[in-house]
Amino acid sequence: MKRWHRPRGTADILPPESRKWQTIEALARSVAGRYGYEEIRTPTFEYTELFHRGVGDTTDIVQKETYTFEDRGGRSLTLRPEGTAAVMRAYLENGLQGRPQPVKLFYLMSIFRYEKPEAGRLRQHHQFGVEVLGSDHPLWDGEVIALGYRAVRESGLRRLELRLNSIGCPVCRPRYREALLAYYRPLKEKLCRDCQDRLERNPLRLLDCKEDREYAEEAPHSVDYLCEDCRRHHETVKEALAAMEIPYREDFTLVRGLDYYTRTVFEFVHEELGEKTALFGGGRYDGLAEAIGGPPVPGIGFGLGLERWLAALEAEGALRGEEEGPDLFVAAPGTEGLHLLPLMERIRSQGFRVETDYGGRSLKSLMKLADRKKARWVAIVGAEELAEGRFLLRNLESGGQESYPLDMWDDVLTGALRGGVGR
């Protein structure tokens, strides 16, 4: 018989590992909520052209990494390779321009890229992202960076470095483009094949190449070619970071991997993930809405991969993965356990986690099971206890055990589980 395996580059997230995911997802939601961001959920797939026009035809994502297919109606669809283009599409399509601006959104979603699987980055990975749509004020850049910084710091990460750059706008970018062409053209034969192909079409992409890093280090700096508006914008972002005491380093090779970025780009690097792997990053994309056929809508955001977040936490020992046991395990030796159902439901209705096992196991095996599950308390209501109208309550930590009338079930157990009985 054929054995089924998960596709390469995907992962099964099993308990207790899934508890770690729940922890950081809850933290992401909490931090986003404190900043006033609301959740958005977009489709898993979009029309392919959205990503070609938004992300850029010359990016690795579009050229090599998208999962694209034709549906039964002959339409080309693509599993989302990133979140921002879909969020902008939703903003435009659903008339969010009519809401008070800017619109502040966050998401937790799966991302799909056909790339070589590596630690912290799978072909299906998961992302926490935020987007601010409808304002080009530089202090929003500072707030977005601060939100991401707060989330990872509150999770326990410490060994972080923020890298910051500005890549200008359509006004000043042409001058910088010419400077890059003048620098890279004499080096063309030394560049990797991808960079040779990109040189004339999109020289900014060369700065993002990991193979030709040595040449990027010596390339002209975008900040030296900024127009006055972009220069003021960049200075204000740096002032905002300083005011919030968020340390940063200017990285003049930083451009990010998507064509929609303008002005501010940033990355957070964690030393345990390595120099070439960003923990997360983002930037401003004031031309994205126009690229996908809409009116001008400025925006700023970031995407934080949950797998990388968890990998960094594990490297720092900042997230414990111990399995959390039930508050109460109910044992019914010598019975099928039907009588337990209303008893357990009453305790669960008080907010406690209650488990059992049905089918008449012996008390010895049930106590072993409760111990393996790491239960705090065991209530014994077997055939003998039922006949006598009582139950036994055992504290697995202290080993103490008491007998109580069955009609005191609710009061005794809620008291014990809240710390008032049997300690």
Write up what this structure looks like.
- This protein is α+β, with helices and mostly antiparallel strands and 423 residues long.
- The chain has 2 domains: 17-172 and 226-316, BirA Bifunctional Protein, domain 2; 328-415, Anticodon-binding domain (Rossmann fold).
- Helices cover 35% and strands 20% of the residues.
- The protein is built from 15 helices and 16 strands.
- The strands form 3 sheets. An 8-stranded mixed sheet has the order 1-5-6-11-10-9-7-8, with helices on both faces.
- A hairpin with a 5-residue loop joins strand 15 and strand 16 (401-405).
- The longest helix has 18 residues, at 17-34.
Protein traits:
423 residues, BirA Bifunctional Protein, domain 2, Rossmann fold, 2 domains, five-stranded mixed beta sheet, 35% helix, elongated
Short description:
The protein contains 15 helices and 16 strands. It is of the alpha+beta class.
Extract low-pLDDT stretches: none
The CATH topology of the largest domain: BirA Bifunctional Protein, domain 2
Structural class: alpha+beta
Q: For the terminal residues, how far apart are their CA atoms? A: 54 Å
Which word captures the global form? elongated
CATH architecture of the largest domain: 2-Layer Sandwich
Helix and strand arrangement:
Blueprint: H1 17-34, E1 38-39, E2 45-47, H2 48-55, H3 60-65, E3 68-70, E4 76-79, H4 84-93, E5 103-112, E6 124-133, H5 138-154, E7 160-166, H6 173-184, H7 193-198, H8 213-217, H9 228-243, E8 249-250, E9 262-270, E10 278-284, H10 288-291, E11 299-305, H11 306-316, E12 328-331, H12 340-348, E13 354-356, H13 363-372, E14 377-380, H14 383-388, E15 390-395, E16 401-405, H15 409-417
Parallel strand pairs: 1-5, 7-8, 12-13, 12-14
Antiparallel strand pairs: 2-4, 3-4, 5-6, 6-11, 7-9, 9-10, 10-11, 14-15, 15-16
